[in-house]
């Protein structure tokens, strides 16, 4: 029996209600890497499916990169818990070797390619939503990485509509990473960790921006335990006219990288 903490259930329930993430009749394709985040996501959706007054379907989909990944245990895990699972085998890894220039960001390359496969599968199989396992730490790290290194202020919305019409939802966006780690540990479920990151197999320097940003935020949180509460509320309290725009019409509205 899977134990999902009251805290996680409450946060996801509230996010779902406030942002209208899951609706009656939805068919949701869930990106399931096998990591602790998307693992929590599939179990949270399984729980909601059992108790919600509305009906929806979901399927966990794992994209492999053609690196000889051994992930049958993920299918077994899903089967054990009555969760539909599909593995999409790709050759993204080979393609990456040709496409990625030394020191360019392979993380975003893999993420874009993977998203392409998830979208195509969702559209081909009649799913209307794609769910991803990003959490609050991801949103904050992404914001500060963009702010410090890419000269832009952007993060990850709980819900948006992609150009192809699919709605992308992030039910865990207000959960803290440590809560998701605790979920996997408490339930003693085998997860795939950072060692599976395809970037580790390339002869290039790993990008340090994420690690540096993570450390910085952890240090700041030690000094100010409420920092994530403040950052979270700042994300829906943006005072645009106080920035350096000559004309607010210049604001870009693209959501995806
Ligand atoms: N190989 C994959 N196949 C399908 N979906 C994936 C895959 N890798 C990542 N995703 C989806 O994209 C989300 C964000 O990916 P990212 O690589 O940032 O994962 P993460 O922060 O390590 O999370 P997780 O613990 O779920 O792996 C994941 O939570 C998952 O929903």
Structure in words:
With 257 residues, the chain is α/β, with parallel strands linked by helices. The chain has one domain (6-236): Rossmann fold (3-Layer(aba) Sandwich). It has 9 helices and 6 strands; from the N terminus they run αβαβαβααβαββααα. It has helices at 6-19, 36-51, 72-80, 92-99, 106-124, 136-149, 177-186, 209-223, 227-234; strands at 27-31, 57-64, 85-89, 129-131, 159-161, 167-169. A 6-stranded mixed sheet has the order 3-2-1-4-6-5, sandwiched between helices. α2 packs across α7 (177-186) and α6 crosses α8. The N and C termini lie far apart (38 Å). The model has no long low-confidence stretch (mean pLDDT 92). Adenosine-5'-triphosphate binds next to α2 and β2.
Summarize this, please?
With 257 residues, the chain is of the alpha/beta class.
Topology:
Elements: H1 6-19, E1 27-31, H2 36-51, E2 57-64, H3 72-80, E3 85-89, H4 92-99, H5 106-124, E4 129-131, H6 136-149, E5 159-161, E6 167-169, H7 177-186, H8 209-223, H9 227-234
Parallel strand pairs: 1-2, 1-4, 2-3, 4-6
Antiparallel strand pairs: 5-6
Helix pairs in contact: 2-7, 6-8
This protein binds adenosine-5'-triphosphate.
pLDDT < 50 runs, ≥5 residues: none
The unique ligands bound to this protein are: adenosine-5'-triphosphate
Helical content band: 40-55%
- Tally of helical runs: 9
CATH superfamily: HUPs
User: How many strand units?
Assistant: 6
Q: Which secondary-structure class do the elements indicate? A: alpha/beta
GO molecular function: ATP binding; transferase activity
Binding site for ATP: 31-33, 37, 63, 133, 138
Organism: Aliarcobacter vitoriensis
Protein name: tRNA 2-thiocytidine(32) synthetase TtcA
